[in-house]
Amino acid sequence: MKIVLLKLSGKALNEFTTDHHYIRMMNELKECYDGVVIVHGAGKMISEWSSAMNLASSFVNGQRKTTKEIMKVVSAVQGGLTNSTLTSFLHVKGFESTGLNGIDRNLFVAEYLDESLGFVGVPRLTGDTTWLKDLMASGIIPVYSSVCRDVDGNLMNVNADLFAKELAIALSVDTVLFVSDVEAVKIEGIEMQEISEYEVKFGIANGHITDGMIPKLESSIELLNKDIKKVWIGNNPTKLKFNTDPLYNMGGTWIVESKRVAV
Questions:
Q1: Rounded-to-integer distance, Cα 62 and Cα 252, Å
Q2: Are 77 and 23 in contact (CB under 8 A)?
Q3: Tell me, what's the pLDDT at 261?
Q4: Over the stretch 162-213, which tens digit does the pLDDT of each residue have?
Q5: pTM for this one?
Q6: Domains of the chain
Q7: Spatial contact of 83 and 40, defined as CB atoms under 8 Å apart
Q8: How far apart are CA 177 and CA 205, in angstroms?
Q9: Which of 33, 59, 141, 259 would you call most buried, defined as having the most Cβ atoms within 10 angstroms of its Cβ?
Q10: Pairwise CA distance, residues 84 & 167, whole Å
Q11: Residue from 201, 204, 207, 202 nearest 225 by CA
Q12: pLDDT at 128
């Protein structure tokens, strides 16, 4: 089963429901893949709601410290409002969909990442994905919030990029699209249309790839090593044409298997 996973974050969350080009893209994805699954974040809105409720938000290495009170906000905003908004929009535009989270059907249980971060976890696959593939085979788009639970049933905050990676591996998807505010991977100021595993490792080693792009690309390499065929990072997937070879279309960066290098 050929599946594409679309991870939405940053401004893409708003653009998805306001830019008609996304509808064209969704129709094309439905034509070119046997299944489409969406994973979304809601970081900015969680911070805004936390501030409005006088709850301090702080981050360590990109992870939000999550108390029980903050976890309530995460669940309400990401698992509730954002998930429902996306699912409702898809239905209005003719795409049958269903809102889900990592707790549903016992698919994931989260392990604590660091006790000092509170209820922040790493998702571990505990359930079977057959039912999820059956949903997609029947034309339904699963829309996932990354909210999970721990072994005791406490709600857990899971980074949506990390959740998307683990879900992609569990489903053995064909293509992963990380849609964020990042235009493309840049090497010495030049946007890369395509970059290989070898080039990523070389770029990190020589300092041409730095900061927040490092974990994104390392996750992308992990996906390739788990037999996911294509991984893309960018801010406008609507420029891609999926009924042709996407590796030669403008916009963002495709991370591909390492090219054979002479030694």
A1: 22
A2: no
A3: 41
A4: 999 999 999 999 999 999 888 888 888 888 888 888 888 888 888 888 766 7
A5: 0.91
A6: 41-170 (3.40.1160.10)
A7: yes
A8: 25
A9: 141
A10: 20
A11: 201
A12: 95
Of 7, 3, 28, residue with least CA distance to 165? 7
Which residue has tokens 């306001």? 18
Handedness of CA 253, 217, 106, 41 (dihedral sign): negative
Provide the residue type at 168 as one letter: A
Residue 43 CB partners (closer than 8 Å, separation 6+): 9, 64, 160
pLDDT greater than 90 at residue 146: yes
What is d(CA 27, CA 94) in angstroms, rounded to the nearest whole number?
A: 10
How far apart (Å, rounded) are the C-alpha atoms in residues 10 and 45?
10
Amino acid (1-letter code) at residue 156: M
DSSP 153-207: S-EEB--HHHHHHHHHHHHT-SEEEEESS----EETTEEPSEEEHHHHHHHHHTT
Four-residue CA torsion sign, 6, 169, 131, 34: positive
By DSSP bridging, strand 175-179 and strand 108-112 are unpaired
**What is the rounded distance in angstroms from the CA atom of residue 171 to the CA atom of residue 173?**
5
- Chain-wide mean pLDDT for the chain? 90
